[in-house]
Predict the structure.
Amino acid sequence: MHLKNLYVRISHSSVLKLFERIVLMSNNGLKTLFYGRQDIYNPFTNHNVTSSIQPFCANLTHLFIIVTAGREFSCTVSFMKSLKHLVHLKLSCSNSLKDDAVTELAHSFSQSLKILEMDYLVVAEKLKVLLENVHCNFKEISIFARINDAILKVIMEYASRKNSLKKLRYMNDKNVLYFYQPQLTTQILEEAKDLFIVEDSTEPFTKSFLKSIF
């Protein structure tokens, strides 16, 4: 089987088994994997799918993955460390991760990574830990959430330090309710635009990396 792209979001165990089998039969040919399942540890079989598919995903360039603070975390970090050719990462990450876990996650990113997308409500302190510990030079960062001055300043610090960031995208949907009201001032926004392109629009986070042919 010479499969290059796989998109899975269904959590049913039978689908998960089929997903695992397909990856194992892909002959390490997968380039794009949309791994949209949150609980990928099966407590009934004591079997971890992430560890099982890791040897067959070495050539991935595009990945969507959900990271939680549970027992799956260490397997996810190991999986990420094995992806030496990753270019584009869609990261759905729990804010319950402690700083040491965020640091460990950041260290797992390949130096080849150029595009980072995040869909959770970003907390400036967590984002700062992440960006201070990555070894890659992002060209584009997208945040599927509204941002405030604190978040933008963290990204500006990263851009100044790495001198690689070309574009920041964020969501500016006033119809979306948040636990707090982000404040993004014109002054900080204009300062950011001196460093990189800023766009207040994003593609849907769960959109496939590939354009549909239908």
